[in-house]
Records
---
Amino acid sequence: MIARRDGFAYEYVVVDLNTQFDFCSIGGRHPVSNLMELIPSLRRIIAWTKRNAVPVVSSITAHRKSEIAPGDTDACCIDGSVGQGKVGFTLLDKRKQVEIDNTLNLRLDLFRDYQQVLFRKRTDDLLANPKADRFLTQVPTREFIVIGNSVECSVKALTLGLVARGKAVTVIVDGCGFWDQGAADLTFRQLVAKGAMLATVDEVVCRKLANRKRYSPRMAEAFMQNEYLPRSQSNSVAKSDAAGRNGNGLVRNPARNGRSSK
């Protein structure tokens, strides 16, 4: 944290957008096209947040079943589905999920008790959630670091919203997923024109903060080999498919491969 005259401010707050199975799994409903390059980058960023105790705001895309048109096979992140869940390594131990209720009733000091605060959202724009808007607008930080999915939709909407609110925002180019390379490149240029900054994972993970947490080599290895599944699902999948990993270290979505835990 950095000192402020009226209290304190965080050096960085990482905003992790929609790192969910439907977008970040080879068996997901709508996986991003740069998935193979994205997952290792996300792992490095999350490891950096743990090592430096960086606060994290995460979004969870959530669509009601009633919103899905009959016969729509491309619908993703449906409430209660496996694909809606966040991938395991993006969930921190000390976390708090804030539900949507269209009110502004929210503790603004949640980072005093939790490292990760999760908000559900119904649209592409996280700031359309009143609680998320209030929290991100008022959290004291020198800089927001944005990662996740996707560049063309949620990353663009959030970054422009934060910049419009006078916030310093850095988008991690190789830490964001996209479906169309050309559209993503155009979006990055638009964000820079509006005042956002771009960086790479290598540039971010070399930043050292005052409050750092060191891991033994054994702990670091355990994190990198952690299941690519939420804890509630990892045991059942490991038994059925020996972790189900492919040659790239990714785990197939059990719901798309006939291994649902239901």
---
Amino acid sequence: MKTVDAIAREKARKSLKLWDLQREKWIFSRIRDMSEKMEIPWDYMQAIYNIMFSLSISHQANNIGNEHSLPSFSNAIDLTLPFRITLPNKAKLKIAFQGQFGAFSHLAIETIFPNAIPIPSKEFTDVKEKLAGEFADLAVLPFFNTIAGTVNLGQKVADSLEHVVLYKFPVKIQHMLAVPDHINSIDQIEFVHSHPEALRQCHNFLKTNGFKGIEQHDTAGAAKMISKTKKENVAALCSEAAAKIYGLKILKSNVQDLENNFTFFAIVANTSKLPKIYEKLSNT
């Protein structure tokens, strides 16, 4: 940390910002170029440097005593959140997510903010609108899965917001093949409804069993939909929580292609709301 201490003293001496957006963008562009030349996956390289930046900025903040002057800026990552507040946090924030109750984004919210008020949204663009207005304090967006790769829509919406990514964290994803009570055997199933990402994560299972995947807006929404059907050849890929919420029974558990299936989520805040959000987070 000697180098970090020296950087902190130099910033203090020259009255430089603790975190400069343009500088960090430049550094990350160089890191991306390096990852391509060295043929190292960008996601891995980014994860390593995110940790390094997080530790560095937090240490600098404590060193030069201006932790609370961390700026709000567009399309940036505030990596110091775990060092500034307790996680999980009991703040009763309104948090938007894409999907119905029981969706994996809903479960991700409960992991970090167990007392939050989750606000379901049909589309990712609806999440964006709620975060931009007064309907939500924060949003939780998926951006990467260890089987399927980048969650394109979640990443695209996050990139379009005037936001700060407060924290990134993984959630283990376990998909259940769930059906209404009147279906008793996996041999009856022909069509499996779920979110496109879930269908991708269970590709081998679907192919092996000859099931046709049908895309829906989200996993929990698929569970809710088939809970109302009288058809005898349909199932949903969803969480265990969604199956319970919508009264489905589980024919087969953990049907994802890999046991260690994780999705990384981002907690996103609108920059204009950041001071009030930090106040709420700090008072719990």
---
Amino acid sequence: MTIPSTAGERLREVARLYVRQQRAFGPSRSRCDVLNEILRHGALSQRQLAQQLGLDKGWVSRAVEALVRDGSIDKAPDAHDRRSVVLRLSDTGLRRAQTLNAQLNRHAEQLLASIPEPRHARLHAALGDLLQALLELQPDNKATPRPVLRMALATDWPPIERLLLECGLPVAGAHEHIDTFAVAEMDGQIVASAGLEFHDDVALLRSVATGQAWRRQGLAEALLREQMRRARARSAKTLYLLTTTAEAFFLHHGFAPCERTGAPAALERSAEFRGACPASALLMQYTLETE
């Protein structure tokens, strides 16, 4: 084929061919987009999903219903708006979306690997410039900013500690596990967190907190999904947690109450089991399936 001569034509051709090749890895493009958007945000209403995708509500509704029928998406009433429902990935949908993303990432890596190494630095810089330009051109970029999910850094501890104290959660023992925390950051501020402690073949989920102004936006769900993925990657077989106030939230996400006296002895090494959490805290567990 003839290579387009102008930069604009080349960009359009790159986008066309890239999307065409990535379509080979999953379901229809519409369903792919829906799965990836819910995976990114954790939970969305159908209206929010249509806004994020910039697509017609009817088109989004048809894609969602197809994914509900095949068991990839769960619908639940919105506790804060009876006229709306909240869309979340089921366990099947989560595995499907993660598998799809892994395939798409491998395809992108293979494509970049075909370009000579000396050109990578310039390509990386150009892609960064292009991404920034696209973000700035988003019609709702300023109206609906979204926090960035990432792994915590050592320097994040002070704001994480403040967030935990604001939410009434224990801080004892958390600092020593800062390298396994995940956080949501917005404009340089930590607005949500979820921590993990690993003890032998079990993992303890702790410090799941969201700042008051950022609640009901799917951040806790997104961080929970990420920490579940990381626990599986570390070959943990069971994920435990202690809670005094969030039993309903964790029940919705598949955790089940269990007797505290039956907890693995390895968890006694955690500060949460040595008194940071009150004796009245409910112990819950989630069996991690191998992906």
